[in-house]
Amino acid sequence: MNDCCIVGGGIIGLSLARELAGRGMTVRLLARGRGADTTSWAAAGIFPPAPMHAGISPADALTAWSDTLHRTWSKDLEAETGIDNGLLPSGGLHLARSAAGVERLRADAGRWREKGTAADLLDAQEVMACEPALASGDDAGAILTGMLLRDEMQFRPSRHLDALEASCRSRGVVIEEADVRQFVIQGTRVERAVTATGEIAAGAWVLAAGSWTGGLANAFGIALDTRPIRGQIVLLRLPRPVITRIVNRGLDYLVQRPDGRLLVGSTIEDIGFDCTTTPDTVERLEGVARALLGELPGSVFERSWAGLRPGTADGRPTIGRLPDLDNVYISAGHFRAGLHQSTGSAVLLADLMTARPTHLDASAFAPGRAAPPAGTIPAGSTADYLARTVAAID
After folding, report:
1. Res. 390 pLDDT band, cuts 50 70 90
2. What CA–CA distances, in Å, run from 265 to 41, 288, 293?
3. Of 7, 83, 88, 345, which residue is least crowded by CB atoms under 10 Å?
4. Where are the domains of the chain?
């Protein structure tokens, strides 16, 4: 019998499996899908600046700590597996095309500076000097100002997942595709899970299945809001890179890979468990690339895909032990920050599971914590991003 069985094969589950196995635990990981079938693989891999600062929120504190851990994990994973996850401090350029957009960028720059992050406001000429390819875009004449975040980073989710899986296997983690159909509970403990191929026993259980975690938690009478929010991305293959930074226009973005591939995203769609792409959205995202960069001679449409981000009501993931059960834990609800928060989430939950002091106050993420007051929209929550999608005109 394994010490722990993790249900969920995305970046949250794999990161925790690696951390627990590194502490000497025997770990089994059950995945509904692998690789490109996971929401983690579908993400663009954008890491906004994550400074630790006075008055920081619990979610931002988790991100800041995770950001620091990522730099260590990236080096360690490459040393262990030979896989470079592409962590790159490329910087990010945010654009505005209207008076309202300019005011938003100025306010954003002020908030970043208060947190201790460099945020340079650029006029239109400086924007073009920063990323000359923007001068060829259909929107070139409409860009009024820009904000440069020098500390924004990117990485390659697919490579990171490959590195995590290879590291897990080298540490003895058993990874298999299985869909849990039922949990068998004895008193205050889950003894085993029933799958299509048989029963699995474990000393402890972790639900880390992204948007599907809420359904698993229902088996224990726990109401957990992890509703899926779809994000669609288009991948173009260019003869060579044309930009060096992440470029953001409102909620739209471009991420240039060193090999010439260009990611164009994304959407925030509350449409249930549907991870297909839609022709009108693919066309719109291709239009975003043209608007910002022009016709891009030699570019080829390579593919499109979608992922389902696990929504959250208060802008914080749920991490910790389930009430009334001695050996069942959850790590889910990271919404758009799952990749960024994966390292800190793994270490935080591993500390809770092994009775070690935690780096952060774990109560802020505990299952069963108080819900936000009625009528409020916490920053970073699903409702916040849905509202911003409606308002995003830049």
Report:
1. very low
2. 14, 9, 14
3. 88
4. 2-86+156-226+312-376, 92-150+228-310
Q: Are 29 and 175 in contact (CB under 8 A)?
A: yes
Q: What are phi and psi of 299, to 5 degrees?
A: -75, 150
| 291-313 pLDDT tens trace | 999 999 999 999 999 999 988 77
Q: Which fold has domain 2-86+156-226+312-376?
A: FAD/NAD(P)-binding domain (3.50.50)
Q: What is the pTM of this model?
A: 0.92
Rg (CA), the chain: 21
